[in-house]
Description:
Elements: E1 4-5, H1 12-16, E2 21-27, H2 28-32, H3 35-47, E3 50-56, H4 58-66, E4 72-75, H5 78-86, E5 94-106, H6 119-129, E6 133-135, H7 141-149, E7 159-161, H8 166-176, E8 179-183, H9 184-188, E9 196-200, E10 207-214, H10 225-235, H11 238-246, E11 248-249, E12 252-253, E13 256-257
Amino acid sequence: MMRLIFTMMISVWGTFAVADSMRLAVTTSFDNSGLADVLLPQIKADIGLDVQLLVVGTGQALRLGAAGDVDAVLVHSRAAEDAFIADGHGTHRTEIMYNDFVIIGPQSDPANVRSTASAAAALSAIAQSQAVFVSRGDDSGTHKAEIALWDDVAFGPWYRALGAGMGATLNTASAMNAYTLSDRASWLNFANKGDLQILFSGDPKLFNQYSLIPVNPAKGSGINHTQALALEGWFLGKTAQQMINTYKIMDQPLFVYNDNSSTQ
Length: 264
């Protein structure tokens, strides 16, 4: 797998960076989808750019960008992205692709989530039944989306915040036969489903947009801004569009390319 997990040795990046390489902080949900393993070799073949991934949650990715420890971020939390740019950490935001979040749970559905009419109502039903819900609890884009859906809920022992990535959260939910919120791509690529299935989807509030933000080169002399812009240019091209739209698991697409990608 062509990716690097964030470690305490982040400072080493600046020492070994070369002209045709860049550091991109991406979300664990994007990494769990497997799409990076398809895109990265093509990016290198097309434009000679070695994209080195740091796989973290959206919150941590933005903090790495604010510290000047990466050259760009690929994240999925609009409010946090807007704040990142407003604070001068990023130069602009370009929408690349999207999918949706889905509410996963046991086939028996003790909270009767299937019968609810909205994502918020689905989570309220889980809270009222006190069925086990596993949260990423890691300040990721998925965690931020989940928190925004809860409506004045008093969390109790039934709510398990892990502080972990999407894969670990799905594994825990499978082991506990519990509810959770996942991006659709991670769920489709998840092999250990057990008795879990998608119980609710389709609410517009579950829309999940992924955007690329080049880090402001003023954050440090080691920022490879030219390479970040080269990556952005590749993502806005026809090859990226075709590869993203045709990437499937079990004949199901994982992402939809933003045909009218906009730089903001």
